[in-house]
Amino acid sequence: MLCLAAETRQAGKVPWIGLVSGERPQVEGFRGGLRDLGYNEGKNIVLEFRNPEGKNERFPGLMAELVQLKVDVLVLTALPAILAAKQATKITLLSH
Could you say which of 3.40.50.2300, 3.40.30.110, 1.10.8.60, 3.65.10.10 is the CATH number of the domain covering 2-95? Predict the structure, then answer.
């Protein structure tokens, strides 16, 4: 899984994470990991989830939506999503 740092919001704001994945176990695992770290969705973190529904051609539009929302971090689980994100904005790649 790759995290891509995007333009950040003002200090003190609730962070927004843009998550793009079509695989439910990955999404639920990510949410569980956030909970384990003390993040509560809707309280101290916002998760903007997008599902490409198995259609790679949807990635550019999904990335454009998340870039327009100015999410703080993009979490992408597929190479086509990463390529679409690179096209949608200038990003710094952070691999874990």
Answer: 3.40.50.2300
CA distance 43 to 51: 23
Taking residues 4-33, report their average pLDDT.
79
- Specify the pLDDT at position 73: 92
> What is the structure's pLDDT at 90?
60
Longest dimension (CA), the chain: 36
List the chain domain ranges. Answer: 2-95
> Measured between alpha carbons, how far is 56 from 40 in angstroms, rounded to an integer?
30
- Arithmetic mean of pLDDT, 48-67: 92
39 — phi, psi (to 5°)? Answer: -90, 135
Instruction: With a cut of 50, say whether residue 92 has pLDDT above it.
Output: no
Which contacts qualify for 11-14: CB closer than 8 Å, 24 or more apart?
A: 14/43, 14/44, 14/45, 14/46
